UniProtKB/TrEMBL annotation:
This is Nicotinamidase-related amidase. GO terms for molecular function: hydrolase activity. The keyword Hydrolase applies. InterPro entries: Isochorismatase-like_dom, Isochorismatase-like_hydrls, Isochorismatase-like_sf. Keywords: Hydrolase. Residues 4-145 form the Isochorismatase-like domain. Belongs to the isochorismatase family. It comes from Lysinibacillus fusiformis. Transmembrane segments: none annotated.
Length: 177
């Protein structure tokens, strides 16, 4: 089954203000970079999704927060798709690109768990991608007034697992150099 690694919204906005950093951000970035290394080793296409919203100063095109996070191991050949909404499929080239590449399975990582990641995971299922994977400890969010970030993550993983995605530990995506 041909796979693609999809990394959603790991952008500078989540690292510019220590009060707005993603929960467990260092671990999440390390795990995402491990996934990137695994994908390169296995010739799995890497797709970075970049939230672009003119209404949101942090994610407006060209603003410092809009840039993909400098700590990601991104390379020029990686595909970058800008999205205007929480759904990476809506009004983007993602569906067409996946079809052109004959991708059958999506491997997800990124932010924010309950917003863009949740919306895109469910949309992928609706687009016919029924064998997707979410990598545990390779996605994150911020705490809010109701729930702490770990609770949000646990809640969403419970809903998604064996419905919209299969959750797998990052250790299953290690490779030997």
């Amino acid at each position: 089954m041909k796979q693609a690694l999809i990394i959603i919204d790991i952008q500078e906005a989540f690292f510019l203000d220590s009060q707005q950093n993603l929960w467990n951000d260092e671990m999440v970035i390390n795990n995402i970079n491990s996934l990137i290394a695994w994908a390169r080793h296995n010739e799995v296409p890497i797709i970075f999704i970049q939230h672009t919203d003119a209404e949101d100063v942090d994610f407006a095109y060209g603003q410092p927060g809009w840039e993909l996070y400098h700590g990601l191991h991104q390379q020029a050949e990686d595909k970058v798709i800008q999205k205007p909404t929480w759904d990476a499929f809506f009004q983007t080239e993602l569906a067409q690109y996946l079809q052109e590449q004959h991708i059958e399975q999506l491997i997800f990582a990124g932010a924010q768990t309950e917003f863009c990641l949740d919306t895109t995971i469910r949309s992928a299922f609706s687009h016919g991608y029924h064998h997707n994977i979410l990598v545990e400890d390779a996605h994150s969010t911020l705490s809010n007034d109701v729930l702490a970030a770990p609770q949000i993550i646990q809640h969403h993983e419970c809903i998604w697992h064996n419905r919209f995605v299969r959750i797998q530990p990052v250790a299953e995506f290690q490779h030997a150099d």
